Amino acid sequence: MMEHDPIEEQAARWLARQDAGPLDAAAKAGFDAWIATSTRHRVTYLRLEAAWQRADQLRVTRQAPVLPPPRASVARGPWRRWAPAMAVAAAVALVVIIPALDDWPFAAGQKFSTGVGDRYTAHLQDGSQIELNTDTRLRASVDQTTREVRLDKGEAFFEVVHDDKHPFVVISGDLRIVDVGTKFSVRRDGDRLEVVVAEGAVVVEDMAHPNDVAPTLVTQLSAAVAQPKAIRKSPRSEEQVRDALGWRHGTLVFTDRPLREVAAEFNRYNRKQLVVPAEGPMGDIRIGGSFEATNIDAFARLLHSGFGLKVIDDGREIRISN
Amino acid sequence: MNRSAVDLWFVEEVLPLEAALTGYLRRKWREVSEIPDLRQEIYTRVYEAATVAIPEMTKPFLFMTARNLLIDRARRAQVVSIETVIDLEDLDVADTVPNPEQSAVGREAMRLLQAAINRLPPRCREVTLLRKVHGLPQRDVARRMGISESTVEQQVAKGVRLIADAMIDIVPEPVTGRFGRRPRKVGQP
């Protein structure tokens, strides 16, 4: 409960005002006069300011609170609609045999791509949507007979409108993901693929090694990591799925992740690159929290203020050292 | 506002003792609602003393100041037995007050700070998260939440005070007397 203390109320107002931006000359004179009125004003202000600054460290703690999605996208975004759907049984996906001709039929498809740090939502003619994350390239061929997307690189979130007769297929390298009325994300790093299913179910297949790897059903609130000749499934909590999809709101969410992995994530979203020594214990520093993906400078500052690391920024690279 | 050496001393050496100081006041003063005022008064006194000379030992100095203030107030209240005052005089600060290092540091303190932020009223919490966790400027917080900049500023003013108060609670149950004797409280008849 907050005590009634007029001096503290005034101090808090001054602090909030300066938190909004630098004071103009008149306001600054007013503030200085207020501070000079009594020592009690001064100590009250210093106390609040210290607490407020200390809260900055939340950005580099293990478990910073997870940021709610921005209001605008809560209203129109899919999350609110997902919640009840999470409860219903997973739809069972059908595996459909697709001719493994390399570029067909994508020659006629639409191409979508994003630059580093950008996001883009593609609306397909069947009503499905694809949200492209940073540095992503894909080709979509969607018409009355075919619904196929080829993910060449990067990461995308698919929100698919159900159509019994025309399953939606995502192909990435030798891996194929077939879904029925599903919301899922696919991330490609070279020939490694990570599929996170938020709703419904998908089947992941290794087209190059059909005899070694059985098609794998991945249901909602689970993920699969697929590499040539290996598809591994693991469960995900609702929160983990939400965190994994934080990029849809421009947010990176980490829980207890080593700094070297965190740096690699930031580097996907920024031209300026974080450089963490490949050897040594620094890369093992554990990071948690919720960060703005494109604000690499703020993250570097926090490494400095929160962990006392040395940060050298030459404009192209940010080198981290002890 | 120009920052002085005393400001720095106050922020770096006195404020980290706030949890311990508050624990001490809670044990010694019955009127809980008066504790924030007592605390601010103690801060004012130590700050003014430090403008003359910054004390070498901050912690004993802070608690001596606290004790003297309680004695002053108790005398003014005129409802206090001599015995209670003697009890105050007796107090060995170093034995009964947990060190801030022992109570909560580093990540544990941050975890508690996080918990404190989670307890803020919803709108205040969202503003605080966007401002502090995301580092968004107030203007962007306003745009993102679809509220006015002056509303954001009001919520920051509120959040600042609640967070400062929450930090007091970053302290374990105070250790009572070394000999198992519960210290009496000033102000009790």
Structure keywords:
heterodimer, A: 322 residues, alpha+beta, Jelly Rolls, 3-stranded mixed β-sheet, 28% helix, 33% strand, elongated, B: 189 residues, mainly alpha
The tally of domains of chain A stands at: 3
Helix content of chain B: 55-70%
CATH topology tier name of the largest domain in chain A: Jelly Rolls
Beta-strand content bin of chain A: 25-35%
How many angstroms separate the termini of chain B? Answer: 45 Å
The CATH architecture of the largest domain in chain A would be Sandwich
Question: Could you explain the architecture of this structure?
Answer:
Chain B: One of its GO terms (molecular function) is DNA binding. Chain B: It comes from Nitrospirillum amazonense. Chain B: This is RNA polymerase sigma-70 factor (ECF subfamily). The complex is a heterodimer of chains A (322) and B (189). Chain A has 322 residues and is of the alpha+beta class. Chain A folds into 3 domains: 6-53; 71-241, Jelly Rolls, CATH 2.60.120; 251-321, Phage tail protein beta-alpha-beta fold, CATH 3.55.50. Chain A is built from 8 helices and 18 strands. Chain A has helices at residues 6-20, 25-37, 39-54, 71-76, 79-87, 238-244, 259-269, 296-307, and strands at 110-113, 120-123, 129-132, 137-142, 147-159, 168-172, 175-179, 183-189, 192-199, 201-206, 216-219, 222-227, 230-235, 251-258, 273-275, 286-292, 310-313, 317-321. In chain A, the strands form 3 sheets. In chain A, strands 1, 2, 3, 4, 5, 6, 7, 8, 9, 10, 11, 12 and 13 form a 13-stranded mixed sheet that branches. A 3-stranded mixed sheet of chain A has the order 15-18-17. A two-stranded antiparallel sheet of chain A has the order 14-16. In chain A, β17 and β18 (317-321) form a beta hairpin. In chain A, α1 (6-20) packs across α3 and α2 (25-37) packs across α3. The longest helix of chain A has 16 residues, at 39-54. Chain B has helices at 5-14, 18-28, 35-52, 58-77, 82-90, 93-96, 100-103, 106-118, 122-133, 138-145, 149-168. Residues 79-105 and 171-189 of chain B have low confidence and may be disordered. By secondary structure, chain B is an all-alpha fold. Chain B is elongated. Chain B folds into 2 domains: 5-101; 106-168, Winged helix-like DNA-binding domain superfamily/Winged helix DNA-binding domain (Arc Repressor Mutant, subunit A, Orthogonal Bundle). Chain B contains 11 helices and no strands. Chain B starts with a helix and ends in a 21-residue tail after the last helix. Chain B is 68% helix and 0% strand. Classes of the chains: A alpha+beta (322), B mainly alpha (189). Chains A and B meet through α1, α2, α3 and β16 of A and α1, α3, α8, α9 and α10 of B.
